[in-house]
Design brief:
iron; EC 5.3.1.9; binds fe (ii) ion; 2 helices; Jelly Rolls; metal-binding; mainly beta; isomerase activity
Length: 194
């Protein structure tokens, strides 16, 4: 629009329909990258064997990891299930535990699953136009409960927050979201233990 060179700011495109960018690459997580995340191991193995679908992708914009910076990007979780469990992101705590994050839903229908180390569980519904503020200390995972549409969110969190997948990679979250009678249901994770 104006001829201004040597900018310190950044302008990036994120497509509202696909969540993707013409100028940046995503990090992609096929189902095979999520070993142990879904409760139905047989369904997991069969789905990986039959084509290893892309479950989600997201942007790492390479923002500096300082507390004054803000990491941001879109996250796209594709529709589908593994057994009766909906497609979801791995989910994580922040390494600096008490750092928050905002997710703004651009497209689709999903849930934000959150839990604290002390066992508080919270779930918020995501539809276009809704923003979820994930408070510090809460692990968070996006779950796509639409049969057809990708769940697309725009996220922002402090640059120094970091990602801690440790306890989630070994036993997951306390609660799972599975399909029961065609609808999402919150159930106990049978693999979760203190
Ligand atoms: Fe996060």
């Amino acid at each position: 629009m104006f001829d201004l060179s040597n900018t310190n700011s950044t302008l990036v495109d994120f497509d509202l329909h696909t969540g993707l960018s013409k100028t940046r690459e995503t990090l992609r997580r096929p189902l095979s990258a999520m070993k142990g995340m879904y409760h139905d191991q047989a369904a997991f193995d069969a789905t990986v064997k039959s084509g290893d679908p892309l479950v989600y992708e997201f942007f790492d914009m390479g923002v500096p990891d300082s507390s004054g910076d803000v990491a941001y990007g879109t996250s796209i979780t594709y529709p589908g299930k593994v057994g009766d469990e909906y497609h979801m992101t791995k989910g994580h705590f922040h390494t600096v535990l008490d750092t928050a994050e905002v997710y703004y839903c651009l497209r689709g229908h999903g849930l934000m699953m959150m839990e604290s180390p002390e066992g508080e569980v919270e779930v918020q519904e995501l539809t276009p136009g809704k923003a979820v503020y994930v408070p510090g200390r809460f692990a968070h995972r996006s779950i796509n409960i639409s049969a057809k549409e990708p769940l697309i969110t725009f996220f922002a969190f402090p640059g120094h927050a970091g990602h801690d997948y440790g306890s989630i990679e070994t036993q997951g979250f306390r609660k799972l979201v599975v399909e029961r009678d065609g609808k999402p249901a919150l159930v106990d994770n049978p693999r979760w233990s203190k």
